[in-house]
Amino acid sequence: MRWHALRRMFWWKVIDEGWKSEAVKESLDLCLACKGCKGECPVSVDMATYKAEFLSHYYEGRLRPAHAYAFGYIDRLAQLASIAPSVANFFTQSRGLSTIAKSIAGMPHQRQIPAFARQTFKRWFVRRKPKSTDNREVILWPDTFNNYFFPNRAKAAAEILEAAGYRVNVPKQALCCGRPLYDFGMLGRAKRLLRRILSSLRDQIAAGIPVVVLEPSCLAVFRDEMVNLLPADEDAKRLSEQTFLLSEFLEKRIENYKPPALARKAIVHGHCHQKALMGMDSDERLLSKLGLDFETLDSGCCGMAGSFGFEKDHYDISMQVGELVLLPAVRKDTEDALIIANGFSCREQIVQATGRQPVHLAEVIQMAMQDSGG
User: Fold this and answer.
1) 3-class SS at 338?
2) Cβ of 36: how many Cβ atoms within 10 Å?
3) What is the three-class DSSP state of 99?
4) Cα separations (Å) of 167 from 70, 280, 327?
5) pTM (whole model) above 0.70
6) Residues 6+ positions from 215 with CB-CB distance below 8 Å
7) Confidence class for position 67, pLDDT limits 50, 70, 90
8) Helices (H), 291-360
9) What is the pLDDT of residue 6?
């Protein structure tokens, strides 16, 4: 239906309003931008990209709804909140004030605003002593969610990479891939953020230093959106080839990498963008090396889909999608089993709907290292 609406607008010219068409906008409204169509469609129709492009034109010269700015500019808001996280949390976690904050941001009252960390990952990183001085260097990408909200996951990744013999480098500049911007068609700002990244990392890109990314949706930007938006930029092409998920890096760049054993049961939920663009093979091979007794769920999208499930008008659909497979599987699983989910939005859907605390793959390997005394 969505593709049909776009064809009627682009090629058949039967929709007179063109980029300002309310009918086309309505048809795209429930697109989760999960990129599943790109990975599964025989002709690789990428509705997420078409949606972003349409919204970019539709809102040209218009104000967007409040939630578009609240989520699209989350990197700026989180950076501001990190100056005084306890103050920010007072306004977002207190019962009465959080209701006001959610109302301003266009969030449903059923959702919880994630709390800001007391110390960002980057502040922790610059204050610690490096544990490896090896000549082999790797950049650990400090994405907005693992830097400002859940730094322990990035800390775990830093420890894993150092234990593997790499000198970890973290960009000092405030950089963001702009992932949430695409959901709202904010392509102008998205391009500016990408160019800032390429400018800041130009020397490292030229030197071929690999970049490890923890958030699958951020890696999707480097592998997909960046080369689409900046097709003539050679640094963009090089960076797209030098970026890896943690599992990809450990499996493909480190010869005979062998993590310590971890005798646990687990269920694994793959992020939509990872399943569509990168696949789950590296994760599954690594989990097998850990000795985990795990099952990868055939769960499709978690339903949160970036900011989709945080938006008031989409909450019910978000929960319906989650209840298809993922959430019942989590509730049914035993209390001592690990719930592994690498995506920020996936973990928030699980936490807020079931109360279970999922873990990132980096935290799983860190558990194994701690159990082995490493």
Assistant:
1) strand
2) 17
3) helix
4) 36, 26, 39
5) yes
6) 143, 145, 146, 179, 342, 343, 344
7) very high
8) 315-322, 326-332, 344-354
9) 58
Axis crossing angle, helix 95-105 with helix 85-93, rounded to the nearest 10: 90
Distance, in Å, from the CA atom of 69 to the CA atom of 325, rounded to the nearest integer, reads 31
Residue given tokens 């959106």 in the structure block: 225
Cβ partners under 8 Å of residue 297, min gap 6: 267, 268, 269, 270, 325, 326, 329
| φ, ψ dihedrals at 268, nearest 5° | -120, 130
CA angle 84, 87, 92 (to 5 degrees): 120
CA 151 to chain CA centroid, Å, is: 14
- Amino acid occupying residue 215: E
What is the structure's pLDDT at 144?
97
Instruction: Give me Rg for the CA atoms of the chain.
Output: 21
pLDDT in tens, 283-333: 999 999 999 999 999 999 999 999 999 999 999 999 999 999 999 999 998
**Mean pLDDT for the chain overall:** 93
